[in-house]
Design brief:
Layout (H helix, E strand, L loop, with lengths): L15 E6 L4 H4 L2 H9 L3 E8 L12 H19 L3 E7 L8 H14 L3 E5 L14 H14 L10 H5 L9 E5 L6 E4 L4 H9 L8 H16 L7 E8 L8
Parallel strand pairs: 1-2, 1-4, 2-3, 4-5
Antiparallel strand pairs: 5-7, 6-7
Length: 249
């Protein structure tokens, strides 16, 4: 690539991070390569899936419980490829996920248990992907629930006080990274991790008939994002800094 890049690569890295997604495979279509890069550099990551994807099929005769179990197995295999320390499934209703107090409490419990510096989630303000499609209602609900759990609920000991009384002390999430955003403002070089992302996506066999078509689309979008920082591939994310860095970070 020639010429000056319009942006500098984003290099801040959390010690601990949590990815909150609506469905199995969302995190792998989303920031999986960033997660792999951070983990390789020494970060510890945890994945939370709000649903188990029991509506993620094309056959009305499929048993949704069997499909959910299969998709959980696929997501665990994909998470192993990326290197997450673990995966939690919250078993919310696929296709009917709501940003309600029940989901927020579950996410606050996860955040206070794992205590991440950063949370990655879908951008809840994205309703349309430009002219390329509509953002799934569950993606929007999961994104807003993640934001509301990260701030202010997880840091407020009076939010769900029974959690604090049971030993889950309040926790301050410092940064939010929102993926599938129409307003990205940081770009992370994933050139060395893109093939790992694709290996993770391959684990979701129930979701693909022609994986190479999917892989080509993923490569194309990563290359498009990479142009912003003059690299072969990038993740484009929207950064919300809740707590500024402390001296020495």
């Amino acid at each position: 690539m020639s010429g000056a890049a319009p942006h500098e690569p984003h290099v801040w890295r959390p010690s601990r991070f949590m990815v909150i997604a609506a469905h199995p495979d969302d995190a792998d279509f989303g920031p999986a390569a960033t997660a792999a890069r951070w983990i390789d550099a020494g970060s510890t990551g945890w994945l939370v899936c709000c649903t188990s994807g029991d509506q993620g099929g094309e056959d009305a005769d499929l048993d949704p419980l069997e499909l959910a179990a299969r998709r959980e197995r696929e997501q665990r295999a994909a998470a192993d490829v990326i290197g997450y320390a673990g995966v939690t499934f919250l078993h919310g209703p696929d296709g009917a996920l709501a940003n309600d107090l029940a989901l927020r409490e579950q996410l606050v419990r996860e955040i206070r248990t794992f205590r991440p510096d950063a949370v990655l989630a879908t951008d809840p303000e994205t309703v349309f992907h430009g002219a390329r499609g509509v953002n799934h209602t569950d993606h929007r609900a999961a994104g807003l629930a993640a934001v509301d759990a990260a701030y202010p609920a997880s840091r407020n000991p009076m939010a769900f006080p029974w959690l604090a009384r049971s030993g889950l002390a309040s926790h301050r999430v410092r940064r939010l990274y929102l993926f599938w955003s129409n307003q990205p403002d940081v770009w992370i070089d994933i050139s060395a991790a893109l093939e790992r992302k694709l290996d993770a996506l391959r684990a979701h066999e129930s979701q693909f008939e022609a994986f190479e078509d999917v892989a080509e689309r993923v490569r194309s979008r990563a290359a498009e994002a990479g142009m912003a920082i003059a690299t072969a591939a990038a993740d484009a994310l929207r950064l919300i800094v809740i707590d500024p860095d402390e001296e020495g970070d």
